[in-house]
Write a structure and sequence with these properties.
This protein is an alpha+beta fold. Helix content is 39%, strand content 29%. The chain has a five-stranded mixed beta sheet with strand order 4-1-3-2-5, with helices on both faces. A hairpin with a 2-residue loop joins strand 2 and strand 3 (43-51). Helix 3 runs antiparallel to helix 4. The radius of gyration is 14 Å and the shape is globular. Residues 1-90 form the BLUF domain.
Length: 142
């Protein structure tokens, strides 16, 4: 079964996101994971899609990663179709106000049905990303 995980986190200290995204793209390609990262001044919103057990193991590693703190799980749900199927890890820089809007939508999504309509937080992230994906880093090829 495939699932989707959405979470927020903060970086312990400022870092260069490019090398982290390149590493994520390589690993995600290998593990069959797709998704998108939205970033603003050390805050990350990430959507991960893939096989349920692989995603859960990845999320546990993320929670234990010393580069993150305030890791906040927003949503885990089964999916029948990936929203970001062509991106091993898409990327976009967002504003503080956009981060707050996504965070608010995440809180509202906690009450939504597991199999019902697409949760609000995913609709906002997908719509924003598709409209603004000029910063997307290309998938790495081997």
């Amino acid at each position: 079964m495939e699932s989707c995980i959405v979470y927020f986190s903060r970086a312990i200290e400022p870092f260069e996101i490019g090398p982290l995204l390149a590493q994520s793209q390589r690993n995600n390609t290998r593990w069959g994971i797709t998704g998108v990262t939205l970033y603003v001044r050390g805050s990350v919103v990430q959507v991960l899609e893939g096989e349920d057990q692989v995603l859960r193991a990845l999320y546990q590693r993320i929670e234990a990663d010393p580069r993150h703190h305030q890791v906040e799980h927003i949503l885990t749900r089964p999916i029948t179709q990936r929203l970001f199927s062509t991106w091993s890890m898409g990327y976009e820089t967002i504003s503080d106000s956009q981060l707050e809007e996504i965070h608010t939508a995440g809180a509202l999504s906690e009450d939504e049905s597991t199999f019902g309509e697409e949760p609000l937080v995913l609709r906002i992230i997908r719509t924003f990303y598709e409209a603004n994906r000029h910063n997307q880093m290309p998938s790495l090829s081997y």
